[in-house]
Amino acid sequence: MLMSKERRTAIRTLRGWAIAVLQEAGAIRECEYHGWMQDRAEPHARERAFQIARLDPPPDLSPEAAADAVSEVLDSIGDTCPECPPEV
Ligand SMILES: [Zn+2]
Question: Which of 6, 14, 53, 56 places its Cα 20 to 30 Å from the Cα of 62?
Answer without folding.
Answer: 6
